[in-house]
Amino acid sequence: MIPELGQFALILALCLALVQAGLPLAGAALGKREWMALARPAAAGQFVFVAIAFGVLEYAFLNDDFSVLFVAQHSNSALPIFYKFTAAWGGHEGSMLFWITMLAIWTVAVVAGSRSQPQEFASRVLGVLGIVSAGIIAFALFTSNPFTRLAPTPFDGADLNPLLQDPGMIIHPPTLYVGYVGMAVPFAFAVAALLTGKLDKNWAKWTRPWTVMAWVWLTAGITLGSWWSYYELGWGGWWAWDPVENSSFMPWLMATALLHSLAVTERRGIFKSWTVLLALSGFALSLLGTFLTRSPVLVSVHAFAADPARGMFILGLLGLYAGGALLLYALRASKLEAEGGFKDVSRESFLLANNILLVIAAFAVLLGTLYPVFVDALASKKVSVGAPVFDLFFLLPMLPLAVLIGLGMHSTWKITAFGPLARRLAWPAAISLAAGIAIPFALYDKTSLLTSVSSAVGFWVCVTALLDPVSRFVRRHAAPLTRAQLGMCFAHLGVGVFILGVTFVSAFTVEKDVALRAGDRVEIGGYEVHLRDVRPITGPNYTAQEGVFELSRHGKLVTEVESQQRHYTVQQTDMTEAAIDTRIGRDVFIALSKDLGAGAWAVRLQVKPGIRFLWLGSLLMALGGVIAVTDRRYRQPVRAASAAAATSKPTAAGTG
Amino acid sequence: MTPRRQRMLLIGLALAGMAVAVTFMVRAFNENLLYFFSPSQVAAGEAPSRVFRLGGLVVEHSFTQEPGSLTVHFVLTDLAHEMPVTYTGVLPDLFREGQGIVARGALDKSGTFVAEEVVAKHDEKYMPPEVADALKKAQGTVAK
Question: Cβ neighbours of residue A147 under 8 Å, at least 6 residues apart?
Answer without folding.
Answer: A3, A4, A6, A7, A10, A56, A57, A60, A68, A70
